[in-house]
Amino acid sequence: MADDTAGPPPETENGPAYRVDPAHTLGERDLLEGWLEFHRDTLRWKIEGLDDEQLKRRSVPPSTMSLLGLVRHMADVELNWFRRVLAGEQAPGIFWSDDNLEGEFDDVDGAVVADDVATWQAEIGKARAIAATRSLDDTGVRRRGPCSLRWIYVHLIEEYARHNGHADLLRECIDGATGD
After folding, report:
1. What torsion, rounded to 10 degrees, do the Cα atoms 12, 14, 15, 20 define?
2. Does 44 fall in a domain?
C-alpha cells in the first residue's frame, strides 16, 4: 500500500483533501451519497501508508480482524447490497463462502494486498454505477421482501461508520496514527 514516490495526500483539518464532509444543505440523495463517499474515503485513509504486513496484522487478539480484513469485508458488503440485493445479480462472495463464512477476515495471511484493495475499489465503482441508474425509491429484494436504495444507502453509511471505528483502533495499535 505504501507509495513512497507520491508522498502523503494533502491534509486538511479532517484528514486527506479527498475526504470531504458533505455540505449541510444538500438534498436527500446528494446527502446520502456524500456521507457514503465520506465513509468510503475514511477507510481508504485508514489504510494509506501502511505496508502489507501492517495491513494484515491482527492488532486486537483474539479477534481475527485486520485493516485488510475490513477492506475485504467492505468489498463483499458493497457487492451484496448493490449487485445482489438492488440489481438482483447471482454473485458469489468474493472473500468468503458457505464453507468459510469468515474468509474475508481469517484468510488474509496469503492475500495480495494490492489486488484486494483494487477489488474493493472495483466493487465501489460497480455500486456507484448501479445506484446511478435508480431512484431512492427503487427496490431490490432482501430476504424475500423489498429493500429500497434509500435503505441501502443508510445501511452502508452505518456499516462503514461502525467498521471505520474498528479501523481507527486497529490503525492506532499499528502505528499510533489517530484521526476522526
Report:
1. -90
2. yes
**C-alpha dihedral sign at 73, 44, 161, 130:** negative
* CATH code, 132: 1.20.120.450
Kindly state whether residue 112 falls inside one of the protein's structural domains: yes
C-alpha to C-alpha distances, 52 to 69, 84, 91, 103, 130, nearest whole angstrom: 12, 30, 28, 18, 31
Please tell me the distance from the alpha carbon of residue 28 to that of residue 53, in angstroms, as a whole number: 40
Q: What is the mean pLDDT of residues 71-81?
A: 98
Residue by residue, DSSP assigns 132-149 as HTS-TT-EEEETTEEEEH
Kindly report, residue by residue over 103-139, the tens digit of the pLDDT: 999 999 999 999 999 999 999 999 999 999 999 999 9
Q: Provide φ and ψ at 87, rounded to 5°.
A: -90, -10
Number of domains in the chain: 1
pTM of the predicted structure, to 2 decimals? 0.90
Rounded Cα gap, residues 85 and 66, in angstroms: 27
Pairing between strand 15-16 and 11-12?
A: antiparallel
Cα separation of 104 and 73, whole Å?
Answer: 6
Q: Is residue 14 over pLDDT 80?
A: no
- Residues 117, 150: Cα–Cα separation, whole Å: 26
Q: Are 142 and 99 in contact (CB under 8 A)?
A: no
